[in-house]
Amino acid sequence: MSFDVEAIRAQFPILAREVNGHPLVYLDSAASAQKPLAVLDAMRRLAETSYANVHRGVHTLAAQSTEAYEAARDVARRFLNAAHREEMIFTRGGTEAINLVAASFLGPRIEQGDEIILTEMEHHSNIVPWMFLKERLGAVIRVAPVAEEGALDLSVLERLFSPRTKMLALTHMSNVLGTVTPIRQITELAHARGVPVLIDGCQGAVHEPVDVQAIGCDFYVATGHKLYGPTAIGLLYGKRDHLKAMRPYQGGGEMIRTVSFDDVTYADPPAKFEAGTPPILEAAGLGAALEWLMAQDRAAIQAHERELLAQANEELGRLNWVKRFGTAPGKGAIVSFEIEGVHAHDVATILDGRGIAVRAGHHCAQPLMERLGTPATARASFALYNTAEEVDRLVRGLHDVRRIFA
Amino acid sequence: MSDALRELYQEIILDHARHPRNAGVLADPTAKADGHNPLCGDRVTLYLHRDTDGRIDGISFEGKGCAISQASTSLMTELVKGKTKEEIDALMTGFLHLVKGEPESELSEEDREQLEVMAGVKDFPMRVKCATLPWHTLKSALSGAGVASTEAAP
Lengths: 406, 154
What we know:
The complex is a heterodimer. Chain A is of the alpha/beta class. Chain A has 15 helices and 17 strands. Chain A has two domains: 5-27 and 297-405, Aspartate Aminotransferase, domain 1; 40-294, Type I PLP-dependent aspartate aminotransferase-like (Major domain) (Aspartate Aminotransferase, domain 2, 3-Layer(aba) Sandwich), CATH 3.40.640. In chain A, strand 7, helix 7 (183-191) and strand 8 form a beta-alpha-beta unit. By secondary structure, chain B is an alpha+beta fold. Chain B has a single domain (3-141), classed as Sufe protein. Chain: A (Alpha-Beta Complex). Chain B has helices at 3-8, 11-18, 67-79, 85-100, 109-115, 128-143, and strands spanning 31-37, 42-50, 56-64, 147-149. In chain B, strands 3-2-1-4 form a four-stranded mixed beta sheet. The longest helix of chain B has 16 residues, at 85-100. Chain A binds chain B through residues 20-21, 342-346, 349-350, 353, 360-362, 366, 369, 375-376, 400, 404-405, and chain B through 1-2, 4-5, 8-9, 14, 39-43, 64-68, 124, 126-127, 130.
């Protein structure tokens, strides 16, 4: 297979629009990606032809919706190469998936003084759920530092383990720096000490194929809307034995076997963790997104994104008034930067005037921003539908910013 | 550059952002407040001194933020000198109407003329909070609350 970016772009209707009189340049996919027709069509098709609640009724639509919902689970299993379909839980997003593991898996195992290892470059969603355990149960958070270029120092990380370490949770790919972490190696380090591992793959799963069996991690988290799918649905992979042993996260319909006022018995996973009516249309959309992504040449996509990153690095590297954050080798297609003397929000507003969408702010990673010594950066993130010409337009836009603030 | 952007980043705004008036720490303030916009990380600390009539006779600020928040803070510190809490309340109401593009009538001709340079913000709804942060912070300082957040319930 070869990679034809124009053929890809044609499948994303939104990319044809103009913003402020300029063709849209969407460089904010790390915040949320645009959706291809395959996804939009799948959701609409289900809503128009077969929609009903799942796992409840016996009528035809209920059966067809249930089938579509469970088919999406099979696709998700293939996408992460989980061994069993019941290891795939649909959540409301990456955030809920991590909260679920913190509350239902780790919470019951924590005693005062037990330790949780995180890294300095985690998104707030992979910090705050663990902080709850610090607040409620007296867990201790230990933080693996990030070196200047954005990489983790594994020898430092290794020294953080102690007999009291109960969990390691880390990102697969930093949403600010683009750093890709050696998750397989780190999982081995943790497992050698009997420590379970959660990997936040909200960014990582988008940019490279993931094989949870090869990684060996206990939990892997991804979110639909960054995978070119809909919002309000996420994926939690958990090893079968963990999921069986864990308490439910939320109580409600669908997650039970029997309910009386004396006693409740719970369904088996995955239903045990899917209380209430799940995101049904979104599951169909996510299934379509993952099918669509798996049908692409992912090595070619990765090469394309890396080319865009290399081009951006080269062009921005020539500008001595642009400071880039994160230069770890093998990093993903994210460029966080600062323009000398200009706040990131002003950069983003001026770029928006040129139709260019970038993120500006702390990227929900305040501890990392503290480490980098800046309250806010601008961030351009490249996806499979971006082009070399768009990188050029970004660079021209930055020259405009510089001119206005000179 | 579009007209809206040109109005937002007009020279006087950039000048206030580059050379903020009343920057620094005030010795012996009678009130102080911290303002924070958690969405973008902008921070401002305001120091006030009020005379025996309650009029502001000294004001300064420290802060980091975008050009809009810096310029708005700088401009505000110039405008509120010599004013009472009631006068500042009216000024703030007028300012909020102005940057949200709502009809307003509270401003005197002179104040309107001064604040008019911030009116370009109304075309950038995502940036309104940048402009209003110092005013919310001032309100906290005057009421003794000490802390203001753009995300707090009004």
